[in-house]
Model the fold of this input.
Amino acid sequence: SPDEKAVIFGESSQGNVYSIPLGGGERTLLDHIPFNFDLVFDREGRGLVSAHLDTQEIVLLDADPEAPSQPLVVNIPGLSGPIALDDQGDLYYGTAEFSDNPDRQSLHRFRKEQLARAIAGTAIDFTEGEMLLTGMGGFYNLKWHEGKLYGSDLGFRSGLGAVLVIDPASNLAVSNFATFPFEQGILSPSYLAFRVGARSFAPGSGPAGGSLLVAYSDFASLSRVAEIVPELYFVRGRVNRDNAVDISDAIALLSYLFLGGPPPDPLQAGDTNNDGSRDLSDAVYLLDYLFRGGPQPPSPFPEPGPAP
Done:
């Protein structure tokens, strides 16, 4: 929920949307929207719901189970597809038509100005949106993160489930971010969620870059959640995170080992001899390299990179 105090749970077959408090307690019937599929909140805390009423529509979550749902986008072809809002407030919709025509699986955008008019009472016809991509395999979920759009591709058409990343900065280039190979039939990623980290979600950031959680299943006997964490890049021996490997790093390592000083950042950087632990021998190894012509620290050194 916008206040981060509850989970909003949509139950499609009965059309009920519940608010379930994170602190415990009874669920509350929030709205009634038949065949609801996906939900996003805008910056004002308003809920937008993808649902299949008499036809496929995107409607407003009005928190009134008795009132009819206000339509925002109408005359959408196919079944219920996923929605996502970017940082500018534009709405993105992935179609859900499982047909033999690949051009029918597409990504569309509706501008925030159009949404404002729809919320004021003038619904958007689907044809008024922008078609951004065609020939897609079949989106199940869409999530914006750090300026990129991530989408789960069920894999029913291609035979390989995947998480795709769409980069607006590269003319909406589409690439495979992660694939889910055969195990017990086709493994299809469905819902996506990001755990935000202190650094960007990019190669090199490691666990500090957060992670992407992917629910995936064969929709028969297997359901799991995968966590994808950026690979960690570091310089072995650069313990104090400045721009050089020098005596200050050996001092910082000794301070960590014997005086309760801060740990190496990341910890792997303190394993200067690459023996799998951080102890006095690492400080001796580093000092030997710096002042006695000893061997340099193993890779990654002297440039940042992943552990071998």
